[in-house]
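Explain this record to help learners:
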Amino acid sequence: MKVTVNGRGVELKNSRTVAEFIIERNITGKMFVIEKNLEIIQKEDYDKAEINEGDVIEIVGFVGGG
């Protein structure tokens, strides 16, 4: 299935949910947010939030500093 991730076209092989997407893309750490079609997905909903053909996904990471 083809989706857009952070502005680039990506072919997903096994991801049907946001939780599976995180595993397939090897996204690690706790300081990130997943946005799907301009809607932030809550972490507790990752396993229920389905990914469909043509979806636009943004991965936003947070970095501390000063």
Notes: The chain has one domain: 2-61. Residues 15 and 24 are 7 Å apart (CA to CA). DSSP finds one helix and five strands in the chain.
